[in-house]
Specification:
Elements: E1 2-3, E2 7-11, E3 16-21, H1 32-47, E4 53-58, H2 69-76, H3 80-98, E5 104-108, E6 111-113, H4 115-122, E7 125-129, E8 133-135, H5 149-156, H6 158-167, E9 171-172, H7 173-179, E10 184-186, H8 193-206, H9 210-220, H10 230-243, H11 247-257
Parallel strand pairs: 3-4, 4-5, 5-7, 6-8, 7-10
Antiparallel strand pairs: 1-2, 2-3, 8-9
Helix pairs in contact: 1-3, 3-4, 4-5, 5-6
């Protein structure tokens, strides 16, 4: 296990890395230090060939209460140049998570507020305990969800995103699931709870080629909802032509035809 100033990072024998936000005394609210630690952790894990899946969670009673209010107070008293550089670091950290070539899972409990919603949505898959609460809460403090806004819009669409941001109201996990903030909600009495649910997602992800997953994330990050024009058709054709000639594809086809597990599937 690696312990950073604000995080704990541990990777198991399967290549499943768990990044645990470790400021429970402030419900894992993040400041400049945690932003830097998250950025560094996801950069390192994303480049580590031994890492297959990354789970982001929070220590204590909450996933993340969003921005640390002492950090926001410092920002309100700082210069324009300081604020721009600081906001760019926050935006860069969320982008680092979103563009990580490894599949990522947000494991949410307690609350995800403001930027905590952004962290949830930057991950590929989001699983929450039934009692979790969510709020795009920035307007309550006289600011707006600017950096996290695109992630909210991409997840739930413009109209729901405006509703969440304008009201800043809390919503329960069941509603977050309904509108697209989450992929699964786990009832408290479910067998094994949220840990078991996350393990099921991990098991699904580990069945698939890691290079293929990286290619999926890279390609899908370039595609937008809209017309499938000549440029899109050519990009997708060139991508599949290149990937299916690779060693991982050859192993995948050989494993299927040979009725055996592919080399990347864990043996235990």
């Amino acid at each position: 296990m690696t312990t950073l100033h604000t995080l704990q990072v541990a990777t198991d024998a399967r290549g499943v890395a768990r990044v645990t936000m470790n400021r429970p005394e402030v419900f894992n609210a993040f400041d400049e230090a945690m932003i830097a630690d998250l950025d560094a952790a996801f950069e390192r894990l994303g480049q580590d060939p031994a890492v297959r899946v990354i789970v982001l969670n929070g220590a204590g009673k909450a996933f993340s209460a969003g921005a640390d209010l002492q950090w926001m107070k410092r920002a309100s008293e700082a210069t324009q140049d300081w604020n721009v550089a600081d906001a760019r670091r926050f935006a860069g950290m969320l982008d680092r998570i979103a563009r990580c070539p490894k599949p990522t899972i947000a494991q949410v409990h307690g609350v995800a507020l403001g930027g905590g919603v952004g962290l949830t949505l930057a991950c590929d898959i989001a699983v929450a305990a039934a009692g979790a609460q969510f709020a795009v809460s920035e307007a309550r403090f006289g600011i707006l969800p600017s950096v996290v806004g695109p992630y909210v819009i991409n997840a739930v669409g413009p109209r729901e995103a405006r509703r969440l941001a304008l009201t800043a109201s809390g919503i329960p996990a069941a509603e977050a699931l309904r509108i697209g903030l989450l992929h699964e909600v786990v009832e408290s009495d479910a067998a094994g709870g949220i840990d078991a649910a996350v393990e099921r997602w991990i098991a699904e992800l580990l069945m698939n080629g890691p290079e293929a997953q990286a290619e999926i994330k890279a390609l899908f990050g370039q595609l937008e909802v809209g017309p499938i024009d000549d440029e899109v058709r050519e990009r997708t054709a060139q991508t599949i032509a290149r990937v299916r000639m690779g060693a991982e594809a050859k192993e995948g086809f050989a494993a299927f035809l040979g009725k055996r597990a592919a080399a990347w599937v864990p043996t235990s």
